[in-house]
Amino acid sequence: MHPTYVKIVRVFPLLRTNYRGQKSTQFGFATETKRYYDLHINGWPVIEAGMEMTAILEKPGDWQSLQGWVNHTSGEVAAPTRGNWIFQLTVSSLMSIIICSSWSSLHPLIMLGPYILLCLYFLRRANRVHKALVSVTADIAR
């Protein structure tokens, strides 16, 4: 994860969506030197001209890999949620345990195993973003 400081000079039109309870925002912005288009972030964070933020990018300089940010002006943190992955991981683990105990077979684990691994991968990724944002927030507080 790569923290990147930026000051937004201009915000291009925002598109906020709410599909099955999953809120997301599509936006673009301009700094003093560059313009960035078609960026996506989970939730409906405040995005306005004059905002100073430290963004967490998965790849250095690649704004399409935006994972979250800390707004220096308001202190707001925009980041992916971890709760949905924890819920899916718990439910899939319980399902596989119940099915295995009733079927006396490991076939359900073979079927649900890749899904559990996928949940763990995305949960680990969300935790990395969360840790990076916490360290940025601590640096700003100093």
Q: Per CATH, what is the topology of the largest domain?
A: OB fold (Dihydrolipoamide Acetyltransferase, E2P)
Could you give the order of strands across the largest sheet? 1-5-6-7
Distance between the termini: 21 Å
Number of individual domains: 2
Number of helices, where a helix is a run of at least 4 consecutive DSSP H or I residues: 2
Q: SS-based structural class?
A: alpha+beta
CATH top level assignment of the largest domain? Mainly Beta
Biggest sheet, open or closed, and with what strands and sense? 4 strands, antiparallel
- Compute the gyration radius: what is it? 19 Å
Low-confidence regions: none
Series of H and E elements: EEEEEEEHH
In percent, how much strand structure appears in the residues? Answer: 25-35%
Estimate the helix proportion, in percent: 25-40%
Mean pLDDT: 79
Detailed description of the structure:
With 142 residues, the protein is an alpha+beta fold. The mean pLDDT is 79. α1 runs antiparallel to α2. It has a four-stranded antiparallel β-sheet with strand order 1-5-6-7, with helices on one face. The chain has a three-stranded antiparallel β-sheet with strand order 2-3-4, with no helix packed on it. A hairpin with a 4-residue loop joins β3 (22-30) and β4 (35-42). It folds into two domains: 2-79, OB fold (Dihydrolipoamide Acetyltransferase, E2P); 81-142. Helices cover 39% and strands 33% of the residues. It is built from two helices and seven strands.
